[in-house]
Amino acid sequence: MGKSILVLGGARSGKSEFAEGLALEAEKAGASVAYLAACRDLPGDGEMAARIARHRKRRPLSWSTIEEPLSPEPVIESLPGRSVLLMDCLSLWISNLLFEGPETGDEEAIERILCRVRGLMASAASSRGDVILVSSETGCGVVPPTPLGRLYRDILGWANQEAAKAAGEVWFVVAGLPQKLK
């Protein structure tokens, strides 16, 4: 069984760079690395396209890239031994699930998404490879001004709690400084 690592941090905290460093260390030790991108490259969104390009530029050419905005569980379950999957990021995946799901009440959306998070973490726990998950810590920011923004923030907070409980290791990155929580 592989290990699972959760890396949390705010916007521009250095969380992705830290997670990439963990994957690089594993690669130097002989593991193959795959990068699972949960972000959707939406036509006409130049700012997001620039973010995606920055992330791609940082990644070594030896890493494979898997673009999977909705169903990362089968990818994680199929990992071979001596491999690492870096999923960046849980927060974008949660956003995708929120907008992709059926229009239901908040309670149904919350339970549907948290069930998927528990399934994701179960997939990571049973995987033969290691899984590094990156997620945004939105609880330290301002309260969103819209009901949808507050719903997203709440779901992501609960999702991060689920992931942290299940992960073998948890890091919090602040101003580029990683702090081990678990």
Q: Characteristics of this structure?
A:
6 helices; 46% helix; 7-stranded mixed sheet; 182 residues; alpha/beta
Q: What's the number of extended β-strand segments?
A: 7
* Low-pLDDT segments: none
Mean pLDDT: 92
Q: Whole-number radius of gyration?
A: 16 Å
Which class do the helix and strand fractions yield?
A: alpha/beta
Helicity, in percent? 40-55%
Question: Which helices and strands occur, and which strands form pairs?
Answer:
Layout: E1 4-9, H1 15-28, E2 32-37, H2 46-58, E3 64-67, H3 73-77, E4 83-88, H4 90-100, H5 106-126, E5 130-136, H6 147-166, E6 169-174, E7 177-180
Parallel strand pairs: 1-5, 1-6, 2-3, 2-4, 4-5
Antiparallel strand pairs: 6-7
Helix pairs in contact: 4-6, 5-6
Please, could you describe this protein's structure?
The chain is α/β, with parallel strands linked by helices. The chain is 46% helix and 21% strand. It is built from six helices and seven strands. α4 packs across α6 (147-166) and α5 (106-126) packs parallel to α6. The longest helix has 21 residues, at 106-126. The two termini are 19 Å apart. The relative contact order is 0.24.
Could you write a compact summary of the structure shown?
The chain has 182 residues and is of the alpha/beta class. It contains six helices and seven strands; from the N terminus they run βαβαβαβααβαββ. A seven-stranded mixed beta sheet has the order 3-2-4-5-1-6-7, with helices on both faces.
